[in-house]
C-alpha cells in the first residue's frame, strides 16, 4: 500500500492530530529508507520482540499495591464527584503523611487497595470509545502515513496525560502483496479462477475502503506453483501424521488447511517441513461462521465472503523483526538476508474465504477425511475428502513485496522515585491492514485509558516507587 491520505474523515472521535506534531516527537521518514546491510550473523539467545506501536510505562506492577495515597475526605469528594470524562482533576495539596507503604493486608472490603479503587473509579467508557474511534476509522498498515498519524496521536495523548512521550523509528521487514491469483485447473467441471476480493458489508465503510489491504498472509514468499491439492485439516502434527500413516504423498503438493487448532504460522511451517509447495488457509464455518452462530453483521461470526488476514511468521522460533532477531532494527545493525532467515516461509501462501474454499473442497476425491476433519460446509461431493487421487490441480500465483521499511514505537515513560531501574511494560501494537476495530484498536484504546488514569494519579501527586 502506498503512503497515502485517508479516503474518509475519522469518525466517532473527538480527537484531531496535528500534522506538524512530528517536530515534537519524531520525523516521518517513510518515503526514504536508509541503506541497510543484509549480512549473516550467528543466532542469539536473546530474541527481541518489537511492537509496531508500543507504549512503555515505566513503573512496577506492585506500585499500585505498595504506594498508597490517602487524601482527606474533602479531597476524596473532589476526585469522585467529577462528571465530565475529560475534566482535569482538581489540584490536591499533599500533606506530610499523604503517602504510606501499603502491603496486601491493607485492603478494602472489595479486595482492592484504596489507590486501586481510585484508579478504577476514573475509568471512563466514553473516553475508551473516543480513543477507539480515533484509531479505527481508517486503514493504517505498518509503515504507512496513516500508521505514522496514529503514532503522533498516541504521543500527543501521553503528553496530555502528563506522561513524557517520544517516537522511536525502526526499520523492519514489512510485507505487502503485489499480485495474487488462484485457479482450479482440473477436474474439467471444477475449472475456475477463484475470487480473492473480500465482500463488502452494507453499512460498514471499512469493508469498502479503497485503502484497505487485500486479503493476504504477511511474510508469505512469492511463487507460481501448479500442483495437486491435499486437504490437511488444521495442519497440526497429528494431522500430518495421519496423512503419512495413510501413505498420502505431501511433497510438492499444495496444502488446503482450515484455521484453528494452532497458529497460522505453524501451519505453514509444518507444511514447508513436509516438502509442500504452497499453503491455502480458510476459515471453516464450523469454527468461525454460521456453525457457531449468526454471522456479521447480524452476529459476531465470519460471513462466507470474509478472509482472515495475518502473519505467517514462524513465531515459535522467533518473534519480532525476522531479519534482526536479538538486535534493534536500525541502520548499521547486522541484518539477515531473507534467504537466510529461518522464521518466515519460503513457499507461497494465501488466505481463502469459506465461500471460495468450497469450490476446491467440492472437487476433491480420494479417501474420505476422518469424521473429526469434517467441517460445516454442505458439499455436493458428500463431504470432505483428502484429495490423494491428485485429480484436483491448482495454480497458486503470489508476488509479494517483502522489503525493509519504517515503523514507529511510541514510548511513554513514568519514572520511579525509589526503583527507577525496575520496569513494567504495558503495550499494544497499532497497525491494522483494514481498520482494526478489534485487533488491535480495542487494545490500543484500553491502553490509552490506562495511561490516562495513571496520568490523573500523577497530577494528584502520586509517584511510582
UniProtKB/TrEMBL annotation:
A Pfam family that the UniProt record links to this protein: Peptidase_M28
SUPFAM superfamilies named in the record: PA domain (SSF52025), Zn-dependent exopeptidases (SSF53187)
Boundaries of every Peptidase M28 domain copy: 410-456
Domain PA, chain residue ranges per copy: 225-294
InterPro entries: PA_dom_sf, PA_domain, Peptidase_M28, Peptidase_M28B
Keyword Cell membrane: no
Keywords, sorted A to Z: Carboxypeptidase, Hydrolase, Protease
Gene3D superfamilies: 3.50.30.30, Zn peptidases
Gene Ontology molecular function: any one: carboxypeptidase activity
CDD domains (UniProt xref): PA_GCPII_like
Protein name per its UniProtKB record: Glutamate carboxypeptidase
Annotated source species: Phytophthora megakarya
